[in-house]
Amino acid sequence: MHGLTLLLLVTGIAAVAWAVGLIWFAETIPREAPAPDSPEGQQITDAIVVLTGGSERLSTGLELLGAGRAKKLFVSGVYHTVDVRELLLLSRQAPGELECCIELGYAADSTMGNAAETADWMAEENFTSLRLVTANYHMRRSLLEFRMALPRAEVLPHPVIPANVHLADWWQWPGTANLIVNEYNKYLIALGRHGLIWALDGQEDQ
């Protein structure tokens, strides 16, 4: 087979595989958060972990903490100038009510960093389970990173559903389509990175 023909064939197969994967990724984004009276909604974990990136995530985490779904709330990826009282006031919560049970992480600036920062905090607290709160489109990549960083911990997903992300006919909404494509590509990169790490670790064990 001519080299150019082979290259075009491989490129075409890769493009089709990428497109099929994108459709699967978009269609499996959670459309609803766990209902409060569902088994998932009522499950209690050691911690609630909120990844910064939207006010809805923090308010959801605070509601879950207030409902007794965990002992502590950890907010990962917080700006260095923000403290617990500011976060509570921004979320319209009385500072004295929940302040004692909230801790902030300032080290993370990526999803992989969120997972590493949370793993360190979980080890310090001797916690073995967490409820992960982040946006629905971000959940699959977050679960990948967290389960790699915390392989022995139970990670319960609790997706937040942003109102400005239109999952119905998402390809017709340029903002949503761009968001999903970017998140899908980041997920593939994370998947490839972890696959490479796994392969290298396997070679070292031989």
Number of separate strands:
5
Going by CATH, the homologous superfamily of the domain at 28-162 would be HUPs
What is the helix/strand order? HHEHEHHEHEHEH
User: Strand content of the residues, in percent?
Assistant: 15-25%
User: Pairing-aware structural class of the strands and helices?
Assistant: alpha/beta
Low-confidence stretches: none
Mean pLDDT over the full residue set: 89
Strand order of the largest sheet: 3-2-1-4-5
SS summary, helix count: 8
What percent of the residues sit in helical stretches (DSSP H or I)?
Answer: 40-55%
Explained architecture:
This protein has about 210 residues and is of the alpha/beta class. The chain has a domain at about 30-160: Rossmann fold (3-Layer(aba) Sandwich). About 55% of the residues lie in helices and about 15% in strands. The protein has eight helices and five strands, in the order ααβαβααβαβαβα. The chain has helices at about 5-25, 40, 55-65, 85-90, 95-100, 110-125, 140-150, 175-205; strands spanning about 45-50, 70-75, 100-105, 130-135, 155-160. The longest helix has about 30 residues, at about 175-205. The chain starts with a helix and ends with a helix. The model has no long low-confidence stretch (mean pLDDT about 90).
